[in-house]
Write a structure and sequence with these properties.
With 118 residues, the protein is of the alpha+beta class. The strands form two sheets. A three-stranded antiparallel β-sheet has the order 2-5-4. Helix 1 packs across helix 2 and helix 1 crosses helix 4. The termini are far apart.
């Protein structure tokens, strides 16, 4: 019997980074598709709530990191498509650098032993 994976909510502050990276890799997408791709890339370990995603998309657009326009989705419905801007690419690079730095700091805490602190 296969163990059912429990989906986790996306950590606060990381959804914008995931949106930027998803658009960087896959190009222009509509909101529902962005959410599904993030869930898929996570191995279905994350759940992306639409009520959380759309405020992030709005914030990123207001900051100039993404832009949007109307188009037609795969199922022939009118949908708002989002794409990364040049500024968004720069933001993605900066946030990746910050994330790598934070991860390295946390790794140090998990690696430390009592004798290292004497």
């Amino acid at each position: 019997m296969e163990e059912k994976k429990q989906k986790r909510d996306v950590l606060q502050g990381t959804l914008a980074l995931m949106v930027l990276k998803t658009l960087d890799v896959l190009g222009a997408m509509h909101g529902y598709s962005i959410a599904r791709r993030i869930e898929q890339i996570s191995g279905d370990l994350l759940a992306v709530n639409q009520g959380t995603l759309y405020p992030v998309l709005l914030k990123l657009e207001q900051e100039g990191s993404i832009t949007s326009g109307w188009g037609v989705s795969e199922n022939n419905r009118k949908a708002r498509f989002y794409r990364l801007t040049r500024q968004g690419r720069k933001q993605l690079q900066a946030e990746k650098h910050d994330w790598d730095q934070t991860a390295a700091i946390i790794d140090r805490f998990f690696a430390v032993r009592a004798e290292d602190l004497k």
